[in-house]
Amino acid sequence: xxxxxxxxxxxxxxxxxxxxxxxxxxxxxxxxxxxxxxxxxxxxxxxxxxxxxxxxxxxxxxxxxxxxxxxxxxxxxxxxxxxxxxxxxxxxxxxxxxxxxxxxxxxxxxxxxxxxxxxxxxxxxxxxxxxxxxxxxxxxxxxxxxxxxxxxxxxxxxxxxxxxxxxxxxxxxxxxxxxxxxxxxxxxxxxxxxxxxxxxxxxxxxxxxxxxxxxxxxxxxxxxxxxxxxxxxxxxxxxxxxxxxxxxxxxxxxxxxxxxxxxxxxxxxxxxxxxxxxxxxxxxxxxxxxxxxxxxxxxxxxxxxxxxxxxxxxxxxxxxxxxxxxxxxxxxxxxxxxxxxxxxxxxxxxxxxxxxxxxxxxxxxxxxxxxxxxxxxxxxxxxxxxxxxxxxxxxxxxxxxxxxxxxxxxxxxxxxxxxxxxxxxxxxxxxxxxxxxxxxxxxxxxxxxxxxxxxxxxxxxxxxxxxxxxxxxxxxxxxxxxxxxxxxxxxxxxxxxxxxxxxxxxxxxxxxxxx
Amino acid sequence: xxxxxxxxxxxxxxxxxxxxxxxxxxxxxxxxxxxxxxxxxxxxxxxxxxxxxxxxxxxxxxxxxxxxxxxxxxxxxxxxxxxxxxxxxxxxxxxxxxxxxxxxxxxxxxxxxxxxxxxxxxxxxxxxxxxxxxxxxxxxxxxxxxxxxxxxxxxxxxxxxxxxxxxxxxxxxxxxxxxxxxxxxxxxxxxxxxxxxxxxxxxxxxxxxxxxxxxxxxxxxxxxxxxxxxxxxxxxxxxxxxxxxxxxxxxxxxxxxxxxxxxxxxxxxxxxxxxxxxxxxx
Lengths: 515, 282
Description:
The complex is a heterodimer of chains A (515) and B (282).
Chain A: H1 2-20, E1 26-30, H2 46-55, E2 60-62, E3 68-70, E4 73-78, E5 84-89, H3 103-114, H4 132-136, E6 148-150, E7 155-159, H5 167-170, H6 181-187, E8 203-209, E9 213-218, E10 231-235, H7 240-248, E11 254-256, H8 262-265, E12 271-284, H9 294-302, H10 308-313, E13 318-319, H11 341-350, E14 361-366, H12 369-386, E15 390-395, H13 397-406, E16 411-417, H14 424-427, H15 444-455, H16 459-476, E17 480-492, E18 496-497, E19 513-514
Parallel strand pairs in A: 1-10, 14-15, 14-16
Antiparallel strand pairs in A: 2-3, 4-5, 5-7, 6-7, 8-9, 9-10, 11-17, 12-16, 12-17, 13-17, 18-19
Helix pairs in contact in A: 9-11, 15-16
Chain B: H1 3-25, H2 57-93, H3 95-110, H4 113-127, H5 133-165, H6 168-175, H7 180-191, H8 193-216, H9 228-236, H10 244-271
């Protein structure tokens, strides 16, 4: 792999900054890797999201402050009981091949997401819809029994199992975008290739040279003003340091800073940083000794000094004891365990654990520089504050995920980035029915509070519900220890104007200008 | 021995002392984190600077020396042992033994190294259950790296033995009634030691690098311990801002390589009977 990469860099360098320098109207970014897919029903990773966000639009779209705003839907109505949403689509929307938008395209796409044969990871996103979970499980096979219905060409009627206050937010996420049955039927899996793929967002796919670069161009059929950019070129340079060198040579316009390079750019005019709705935590396997004892889990949580993380990573991380991250509605900074080594040792003694005789505890993280730094730091913190030895192991990402699903280690690191800006997206993760809950922990009171909060439209009462749920999660039962929220750190060239950072790492490129 | 040989030997001796005593010479332990001192350049307190967690780079390179040298030298010796044995027998006996042994060597050669190393380490890990983690990982690495490294040595040795076998002095020794084993060990091996020593010195840095690859996928040495290869590849990620992180571990690897080369070269001249005493002393 390395040879390939070096050869690629040499090609880029030998073409020189001149050969690849972007003219006005052209933006050059680094995607980092090949997007695994551009099929928005199947995509799950942030590289694919970055590209798809430029190509497509959904019923709603997030604005720069992450508030959902009407997009393909110009307005919507909610029934009195909060269960039925009626979306009225814009009449002037056309796909890039001129085909008009039809409500059936939503019905098709949503049914495809839920169909068991599609096996989409994000199918659970639409489980609030009537019959969706049973349909996905194969218990009902007739899509007409689902609460998804087109009333004419421009009206979409959605019936939910129960009221859900954040439902409009869900429709900003890519898996809810409309789809074209005719294209998928004609081209099969190749429907996302250039020439086949038709989209209705500000940009369309122009070229895709696999493992090298992907080119988007402005969509002439876009229903809003044509974007100021003519072209976006997304290179796939895997090595962050290499991408940085390319930025310094003027070959890239926007680049992510590798963690250890941030300090050199802190005062640079091109440096931009923003904390994200992106939690970083360590989870326990609560089924096995020693973490089947809640006192041991609480001892480990009290032995962590979160103020060390920003000093280690130096990328604008914000320590957070609350699982609902700062910047998210219903965040509460006062909730969670705080650094108290005396209390931690007392809890450990109370649980009858002698650090001298305890066999080393295994902690697993996925192979990445920043995770290794955090792991080495907490290893030292737990040894210093509790006298407990931690044995670290790292795994490649896919192997790591499989291990979490099959036999979770005693301690593991994970993160969670918001799919939509609502606390439910974070709190739902640790309910007993969540596939992303690897702790083995289940709590009926917690489940109930999270469910009630999802249906509560009054913000004050909702805050009380989430505070209660967070206290169970972080102070009483402690299946996880939140560490901090991550920040993005970018360098943006001076020729790029109107590029705004947001807390969800979405690239809004439809108003960006490249001079 | 030549002067360059003495230089190589003293470099190696220096490395050995550094590996054994280095982490006690500085004022900090290799795993002591002082985050407020992170990412400093070399100073009187931290001779080679500090890393992102504020650990003393001198102590880390010294602790890494112990790990890297042990794994590199251990695994290379192990593969030399197998390679000499199989290659020597194969080349000396020839005929059917040679054919079968070489087909076996071909078979092992055709397997991808990293894959075999991963499999061996997994098996060895399970087999070394009660040994403390660091030693278990080191031993597994020595056996696994050695377990794939012997193949090319065996081929080389076989070729050299085949060639030597036809020489007049072997025939003479035979005529004097010398037994096979004695002939192989006392006469043929010393005569072919030159190229073997050179290969030996080449394999040491290769083993150091392979170890860092294996560590990257989680099967090698785990934190807080770090081998030179891991230190260098971690430092590489910050090369533009903090070059001292990649420079010193790489320098340590280079010095090791140089030392083994100088010594190996001089030893070859010293041990090769054909050049012994013919005035190569400079």
